[in-house]
Structures are given as C-alpha cells and as structure tokens.
Amino acid sequence: MAAADNSGKGSAGRAGGDRKQLLRSLPSVEEVLASAAYAEVVEKFGRRLATNAAREAIDGLRADILGGGDMNADDLQPAAVAARAAAAAARTARPSLRPLVNATGVVVHTNLGRSVLAPEATRAVEAVSLSYSNLEYDLEAGRRGSRHDHITRIIVELTGAEDALVVNNNAAAVLLALAAFAAGREVIVSRGELIEIGGSFRIPDIMASSTASLVEVGTTNKTKLSDYEQAIGDRTAMLLHVHTSNYAVVGFTAGVAVDELAELGHRHGLVIAHDLGSGVLADIPAFGDEPSVFDSLRAGVDVVTFSGDKLLGGPQAGIVVGNAEHIGRMKAHPLARAVRVDKMTLAALQATLALYLKPEEAVERIPTLRMLAEDQGALRDRASAMVEQLQSAVGDAGEVELEQAASKVGGGALPLLELDSWVCAVSPASISVDELAARLRDTDPPVIGRIHKERLLLDARTVLPDQVDALVSALEQALSPAAVGPPAENNG
Ligand SMILES: *Cc1c(COP(=O)(O)O)cnc(C)c1O
Asked: Does the pTM of the predicted model rise above 0.85?
C-alpha cells in the first residue's frame, strides 16, 4: 500500500532527517481513536475493530516512510490516518464472499459459485433455516427419523433408481462408494479416466484416501473390455467408470461401453460404479452427448454418482443413485456421517428436483438450465439492449459493440462444446483493457468478463436479467474520469 501523493509535493529521495521527522509526526492509536472523524467508525464497527484498523493504518504508514515512499505531513494528520483506518475497518467488516456479475459466458463456473439457485430453492432454504424442522424426526411415528428420507422419494421418482443418497459433494460420494465397497481391495479403472478436476479432485488420490488400491488398465486413448477382464483377480472389488467430464481424448480412441462393463463385472460378482460428474436429468439439446443418469442406470450400474451444482443447477451436493442393497451399505458406512449433507442443502435440492417433475418448468425456473437453453434470438435481443444501455451510460469514454462469440458450458462438463453467444465488446477510450477489467473487479457488485483481442467481452448469456442495471452502473463508474487517481480502496 504505497501512499499516493496527489499533491505532487513528495520527493523521490528522502533525507534521513526528513524521514525521522515524518516518523515523529505519526499519530498514536489513541489520537486516531479520539479524532472527530473516527467516532463514526468506532460506533459502526465497535472499538475492537476500530482500534486494530487504526494500528494497521499507522503501521502501514510507518512502513511507507521507512521504505522511502512519497508523502508529506498532511498525510499523517490524525484525520487523514483516520480515513485510511476507516477504509481498512470497512474492508474487514464487509463480507468477503459476495454476489457478483458473471459476464464470462461460462454457465457452470466453479470459481464463481457454479449454479445460481432457482427462487423456489432459496425460499425452501429460508423456510427451514428460520425455524426448527423435522430434519431427523418422523412426524407420523412421533420418533426419530432419518434425514435421508426427505430427498430419496423425489430422486427415485425422477431417476427410476431403487434408492438414493445425498452427501456433501460428488467427491465425497465417490470416496464413500470406494470406502464402502473396496476398502483394502482393488478397483479397476481405465487409464484414460484417471482424471483431475479443478486441481483438487484426482481419482488416484481419492482412491488412496479410501484405502482401495487402483489398478489401471488400457492406455490413455484405448481401453478394451479384455483389458478389464485380464485385470480381474481375487482382490478385485469394483469396476469404476469415470466420465472424463473436463477433457476429451479425440482421434484414435476406444473405450468400453458402460453396459458391457456392467455385464462383465456382474459375471465376476463385482460392484459397478459410474462417476458421472455432472449428471443430466433433463433432455436439453445444449447438453449434447453428456451422459444421463438414466442411461447409466439402464446399463446396469450399481451406484451412479453426480454433482448437485453442475448441470443439475442445484446446491453443492453429491447424489448417489442405484440399487437398494448398495445404497443401503453406503448409508450404513461410518464415513457417511462425516460427509453428510446439511438441512439447507437438502431443502434447496428437494425444491430444485421438484421443478424437474415438469421439464418445461425446470428449464424456465432453474437458471443453469435457462441459460443453457436460451434461444439465440432472445439472447441476441437481450445483448443488443444491454449494448445500448452500456453505450449511453459510458458516452465517449468507450465504445460498446454487439458481437457474436462462443461461450462454454463449464463446470467440468462438455469440454468441447461451445455455445453460440452474444457479447457486449467494450473498447475503453483512455485506459487499457486490463485496467478496465481490474476496475470492474473492484465495483460493487464486481463484474467479471473476459479479455479478447484488446477488448473486454461481457457475455449476455450469464448476466442475470436483474443484474443488468448493476452492470451498467459498474461500467459507467469504471470508465468515468473520477475513477482515475488513487486506488479505489483508499476512497473508502
Ligand atoms: C466435478 C466432478 C467431480 C467432483 O464433484 P464435486 O461435486 O465438485 O465434488 C467428480 N467426478 C467427476 C467426473 C466430475 O466431473
């Protein structure tokens, strides 16, 4: 935090005596706390944070002086230091996790929170959060019940599976399946499926934590049924098929169909598990070839695992469907308690899944599905209206043009699929496009776009309709001359 000196009075090289003089004029924490300007900060944030923020501001200034930074005596007046401390206090008190405008066009963006929930889902979360609930209470029998029962019925209805289980996320679902069926034994996986997702989910690592041992078969691009067959031995417990959701091996490839794998495994008395990653429950053209939960169950898989917040469009969760015996064993495993799902997730997931009972309604109400299914004409109209609003807000500070571009589904799904999309392409008149992107990350709410050929592209597909006004104000603010000068964090 270099102290900006906008008065132009600072000097580059500072004499030692000068520096001592400045250090002596630094106010004490007590002086800052006592300054008239700071009373409001103490009132708003409490004495503890106000005191720590004052100390932080003074320490920062001291470091700046010792580092030879430009500054003058005015910067060290209690009121000026109080303004710095107020900004630091506000930064601490402000929620770090907050809403933003996703203008990247990536619909299921893991870094930006994956799926936006349907209003039905958030209402359900609020209802069970503001009151006690029958989370583990059987209202009919008047005694203890199971949290799993609330969600099983709807999942079974939608998928046709015998039974279902929901855990914290899909990584946990895979871990639990391995621990329940293959601890201390072997699991056969095709080499082409030893995937890593988002840097933290690696099939070999998950396998190691479950104490199952991995047996790799085939090569990166080709695995045959006979490869699996030859690897089956006394210690084999499971055949695991992993959907390579975030990359594709194209060209000279061969894999084994899930139904063939299931048939082989069952002949040898093994458990067949399919990690689908995203899991598709609705028939939407934008989903292309993404494998559906139904196909997997029809193929005879014992346990199918998938995420709640990828293409499903619900809360973070790991959903397991399959036959009653295997799901029952997973529910009874001690790890199930460690990865159990909370009541807010159950409420949001139940409400999201209920929308799937009528597929047209699901596409209308679940934002992830709506964005992926949005008609080209409608998307173009929305983008075009945004371009007009943005251009009239920024005037000659920048040029905003309507353009066609490709957007990605994201979320480790459909790696090769690009959807035609419409973007607002912004060329700033007097700042660099990197500077514009940085300023938009600092607006409230922040706006995240993507830079392409010296322009900032704001993709209409992922901008929520009720965030358009916020986006317009953000761009106006980022391009206004007033935004030039000291870094925004020093403006309070
Ligand atoms: C995304 C993904 C996971 C991890 O799911 P989370 O819900 O993020 O834990 C596991 N396997 C596959 C194939 C995936 O695509």
From this structure: yes
